[in-house]
Structures are given as structure tokens and as C-alpha cells.
Amino acid sequence: QVQLVESGGGSAQAGGSLRLSCAASGYTGSVNCMGWFRQTPGKEREGVATIYTYGIDSDTSYADSVNRRFTIARDNAKNTLYLQMNSLKPEDTAMYYCAADFRSSGYLCDVGLSQADFRYWGQGTQVTVSS
After folding, report:
1. Alpha-carbon span 47 to 72, nearest angstrom
2. What pLDDT is recorded for position 28?
């Protein structure tokens, strides 16, 4: 079992920045694919960014809507996943969730994955961007 707890959400002005954190605990060595998803009322949860770690290396993927604005990173020593969000837009307003699971290949850890593809989820943290 892996437990995930997000933090760092809040309010920001358009053009501003926020950094989300996701603290992982439990059998964290069992997960090598982690990601950030977001959801707004009435819509499906969508992938924002994923990271596949193998040894000291990692591969990342991003949704087109956040590419070059958001950066995902994992600190294995701290068992923490991050999402640095820059140049925020009002359309980034959503509940953000951290997710984790095991994948046998980096090709299977892609931002296009759906909610059903991850076993472990955090409770979410709200991000609100005003214009």
C-alpha cells in the first residue's frame, strides 16, 4: 500500500506560480510511475504530467495545455513528488490530485493515462487562478 498526501494548493493571480507537493509513504519502492491529474466539476479527471523513474533517471510527459509552463519532479530521498506551476492561467483552476502505480515500461507511464490506470491517489488540493 502507498499513501499520498498533497499540499501546496491555493490561490494565485494569472501569470503567477504555485508549487504542489505530494508526500508518499508506505511501500513507495513499489511505484515507479507517478503523476498529477486535475479535475473540475462535471468533467473527467485529466492527466497533467507524469514521471517514470528508473534508477537515477526519469522520463516525463506533459499535457499540451501545460507544456513549458509546468514541471514535474520526484525527490526519491524525500519520497515526494512536485509540480511546479508557472505562468498560471484561469483555466488551470481545478482540484489537483497526485497518483502513483507501478509500470513495467516508461511507455506505459504517459500523461494520457486515465484515472482507472492508477491504484493509489491522494485526496486532492485546490488550485484557483484569478484573472
Report:
1. 12
2. 86
**pLDDT of the residue at 58:** 93
Q: How far apart are the first and last CA of the chain?
A: 40
Cα separation, 62 vs 4, in Å, equals: 21
pLDDT along the chain (131 residues), means of 10: 96 98 93 96 96 92 96 95 98 98 91 91 98 94
> Under a CB-based contact definition with an 8 Å cutoff, are residues 7 and 24 in contact?
no
